[in-house]
Amino acid sequence: MRGRLQFAGLVLLLFVLFAAAWGYFYKESQQAANDQVEFLIGVSQANLIEPWRVVMNREIIEEAAKHKNIRIIFTDAAQSSQKQIKDVEQLLQQGVDLLIISPNDSAELTPIVAEAYKHIPVIVLDRGVQGYDYTLYIGPDNRAIGREVGKYTAELLESKGGNVVEIQGPKGLPSVRDRSEGFWDILRQYPGIKVTDIIVADWQRDKAEDEMVKLLDRQSKVDVVFAHSDYMALGAYKAAAACGRNFEIIGVDGFTGAGGGLELVQAGVLQGTFTCDTGGKEAVQYAVDILNHERGIPKKVILRSKKITRGNVFDCLKPETGKEQQKSNRKICLGFSQLGAESDWRKANSKSIKEAARAADIELLFMEANQEQEKQIQAIRYFITQKVDVIAFSPVVENGWTEVLEEAKLSGIPVIILDRAIQPDDDSLYESFIGSDFREEGRRAARWLLENSRNGQPVTIVELAGTVGSAPAIDRQQGFAEIISAYSQYKIIYSAPGDFTQAEGKEVMQEALRIYGNGIQVVYAHNDDMALGAIQAIEEFGLRPGKDILIVSVDGTKAAFAAMLAGKLNCTVECTPLLGPQLMQAISGLMAGRKLPVRIIAAEGVFPQETAHREYPYRTY
Ligand code: GYE
């Protein structure tokens, strides 16, 4: 008996000692963890009623857990902009190092986001804010998602027609409007397909179910239901089951995990879904890069949406894995087709790519095409025969790439598009587009002009356009026209292509001067090189560029800054050619099995003459 008691005492003693030691070490390790926290990130969430936002927060937590040195503080604005403004103020008071915000309302949250941005980096998720006072925007392309749903609906109805019901999220939300508009854009092309009813179910499954039951009561023929979220789609399915009806249901979101869209597709509840990532994971990844002061942080990241049907759902459920070559530690080989060497921009772009490849230890096959599409197609075919790991290229013109990109796809080589976009923009043919928003550059040039030209007086403009059929020429023209078209006194009196070269820019300007002489007040050049050519032509004509004729152009090259310092150029809208580091970063990610955003848009500014002095020393191209 005594022996037993002694034994029990010993066990108790050991237990107490163990507990004390554990407590001590736990405290120590907690202390160590706190010591490790370097960065505090505030997350201001618009609400947690939408399941999509709950997933966003979960992703943020999961991604943040990979970094010992960051800590996250969450706030929930419960659908109130007023509350969200207070939340941000409080987060700022708590001393967060970076803010991630998903705004309740774009306009109402713009001032506080701009205020926060004065002090710390700000990442805006999902709903944008007005203007550019933030570090980075990450979000989906809802209009594109809507269009894809439209195409799939047409595919399901085999163009023979049928009745469709649309179940929307809350009225007035930009995401709802965009998805719906994209969807209708496509369905309008099929006269046999009728959207007979629209239900507003506020992202709620039960509301979708109830409304759908009522609808099925009176509507005898329903062929396809498009629900703006998988959760509401499930409601439609339940309604069908309750009423003994049968139709095909398409959702949006495509979450993994229990009850998520992928599971619903796998179970045959949904015919298909289109993924709409929340960006939570990417926000943390970029936040870490920003806090570590990494270079080449973009301004906008648009997330890829994937179509999920029974045919591919099993592949999607598999965890992401790295590619073989990464495991074997072989050097990654990149084939890059550059369109030419027509401008300072292009030369800087080529240099940036070569230097970044070297720095990233990526083997580079680099081919230049003298602005000829045929040569680029040949280069891409050559890369395919060489079995490179990745192909990247800057398409000289927008059209005519589908065939060669399909060849690359068939041979299993991923493609990244750099700088200029393609049409038709079939994003199943490439992994990512990295470049600028050319239309926005055109708008910026026009806005500068509006602010800096005489009010009320007629303003005559000569436009020196870029290469015919190229994305920057098309978009810069449209963006500029979009803004000035609202003001009748602004008139483009002459527009001709100068192929982005200085020599042709000069020729076009000579011709314009020959026709209009002193009657030209403004030159808008699609790039700096053509503006420099125009400056020569204007001087030779006996007028003063920058004074008698205002000149605004795009790129922001060092030569343009020198022209501004000399008073001969009035403004340059930046378009960065320094895309090499972002390209290599994307390639490394891709090879490691990461899903890339479908569009990565660079951060850029506007530089009027007055700023040239300050900026000139820092221009690197
Ligand atoms: O603006 C121009 C160049 O595609 C953005 O091409 C690029 C354009 C750039 O030649 O200078």
Question: How would you portray this structure in words?
Answer:
The structure is a single chain. The protein has 621 residues and is an alpha/beta fold. The chain folds into four domains: 34-134, Rossmann fold (3-Layer(aba) Sandwich); 142-275, Rossmann fold, CATH 3.40.50.2300; 333-431, 3-Layer(aba) Sandwich (Rossmann fold); 438-575, 3-Layer(aba) Sandwich (Rossmann fold), CATH 3.40.50. Helices cover 45% and strands 20% of the residues. The chain contains 22 helices and 24 strands. The strands form three sheets. Strands 2-1-3-4-5-11-23-17-16-15-13-14 form a twelve-stranded mixed β-sheet, sandwiched between helices. Helix 17 links the parallel strand 18 and strand 19 (490-497). Helix 2 (51-64) packs parallel to helix 10 (280-291) and helix 7 (205-218) crosses helix 8 (230-243). The radius of gyration is 28 Å and the shape is globular. The relative contact order is 0.08. Beta-D-fucofuranose binds next to helix 13 and strand 21.
